[in-house]
Structure formats: C-alpha cells, structure tokens
Amino acid sequence: MKTATFNANSIRTRIQIIIDWLAENKPDVLCVQETKAQDKDFPVDTFAQTGYEFVFKGQKSYNGVAVFSREKITAVEFGLDSEPKDEARMIKAKTAGFTIINTYIPQGREIDSEQYQYKLDWLKRLLKYFKNNFKPTDKILWMGDFNIAPDSKDVHDPAALAGHVCFNPEVTALLQKFIDWGFVDLFRLHDTSGGRFTFWDYRQPNGFKRNLGWRIDHIMGTEPMAKKCTNCWIDIKPRMLEKPSDHTFLVAEFRN
DNA sequence: ATGGTCGGCAACCGA
C-alpha cells in the first residue's frame, strides 16, 4: 500500500504532473493541497479517466484540498468540526482500510499578523479534533502541507530562518503535541539525516538548484500505521526541473 | 539593492 501527498499550487495548472505521477507510481491514495479551484471548476472529467475515486473541496482563488484513492472513499467530511470550519483546508475520509486526514494548514504570513494567530488557533483546534474523535491506536494517516518545519535539520538555513512562521519554537512545540498524542513522522522514521526538503520557495532565484528548501509537507501515522510503514521518501528526480512546481511528492509505503 | 516569481483572476492577495 502506497500513499502520497502533493501541494499542487493550482490543480488545473499541474493536472498533467498529477495524471503522469498517478500513472507512473500507482499510489493507493494521493492527497492534494492548494487546488485553487472552485468545485464547479475542478477537472472532474479528466481525473475520472484515471480510474481513481476522488473527493474535493475548493473555494475561489485560495486553498482547496482533494483526495484520490484506488478504493472506495467513505465517511467524507470537509473542514474542522468547529467554526470556522475551513472546508477547503481539510478532508477526513476512510479508504484503503484506514482513516485519512488531508490538511492544508494555514501558512501564517508574519509572526505579528492575525493570520499567524489563526494558524496557531487552527492547530490547537485540529489537536482537539484528534483527541475528541480518535484514539492513538486507530489506523490514521494525517498528511499534507503543514507549513511547519519540525527541526533545524528541516530548513536550509536554520539560523537565518529562526522565527519564521513555519519554523519557530511555538509552531514546532505545537506539532510536538500531536506527536505526544500518538503521531509518528514517517519520513523522519526512515531518514534521520537533515537537508531533505519538500518545498523550495520560487521567489528565491534558482531556489531549487541552490537547494533553498524546507521540509514542511508531512505524512504522520499513528502507531499501527507506523509499524507497517516500510519506507517514506521525497520523490524529486528530474521532475522538479522539467515540470516546475514548488512542492514535490512525499510518498510512504506500507506492508499489508 | 526592501526587489525577485508564480497562480488565480481581473486589482491585488497569498505563498
């Protein structure tokens, strides 16, 4: 069983990347964030040809999430179970024998902004959601764009980036609370070296070539999923140079 | 050097 996550930054612009990647890698489940398409504009017909089941929730211009699965997708809920729900930032569903939570966590803009406070609140509400609705012994995969680099190993210049909305003691401590509850960082489980990134800001000139990256996309599994996880890796290859997109695919594989 | 690049969507906002 193979799962993956990808921040598309417009699913309509990256549609060929996603179609090709599904065909080449045949994951059982793919979670996508930042689809940036209203539901009426989601490319339903094109994706129907892949044979995958899929569910999605978008809004105008920003955010938007989608889940693709080779198996039936059931028990679908959009957004948090508290207000504001933020439907276009989260999908909960059951498929392939486990619960999937796909999140696009708010980026936060600047430390002294309302948007950063919203990010912190959102994370606290999500933690409460897990505690209220699940047990650490449940089979859960929580994946997506977290907009949090967990450790100094996970940013290209920890000294310069310390205090960034995606890398500071406050957000990393919040992420740790999810780990304390029962989630395992499946990439870190299989690769303890640093300098492995999932995102390169394309506002930085030649950011990918200079490897000015961040590890902010994650696949978190509860213990039953972590035990079965045989590998977790970032799929970079030459794809990033041929078909630019600022995030790459993060993949995890599981024994049955 | 306070810019630089994308994407949505039609003037700027968000990353």
Element layout with pairings:
Layout: E1 2-7, H1 15-25, E2 29-33, H2 44-48, E3 53-57, E4 65-69, E5 74-78, E6 90-95, E7 98-104, H3 114-133, E8 140-145, H4 158-161, H5 169-181, E9 183-185, H6 186-190, E10 199-200, E11 213-214, E12 217-222, H7 223-228, E13 229-235, H8 239-242, E14 249-254
Helix pairs in contact: 3-5
This protein binds one DNA strand of 15 nucleotides through residues 9-10, 12-13, 34, 36-37, 60-62, 107, 109, 115, 147, 201-205, 207, 244, 246.
Outline of the structure:
By secondary structure, the chain is α+β, with helices and mostly antiparallel strands. It is 27% helix and 28% strand.
Tell me what you see in this structure.
The chain has 256 residues and is of the alpha+beta class. It has a single domain (2-254), classed as Endonuclease/exonuclease/phosphatase (Deoxyribonuclease I, Chain A, 4-Layer Sandwich), CATH 3.60.10. Helices cover 27% and strands 28% of the residues. The chain contains eight helices and 14 strands. It has a six-stranded mixed beta sheet. The protein has a six-stranded mixed beta sheet with strand order 5-6-7-8-12-9. Helix 3 links the parallel strand 7 (98-104) and strand 8. Helix 3 runs parallel beside helix 5. 41% of the residues are buried. The mean pLDDT is 96. It binds one DNA strand of 15 nucleotides through residues 9-10, 12-13, 34, 36-37, 60-62, 107, 109, 115, 147, 201-205, 207, 244, 246.
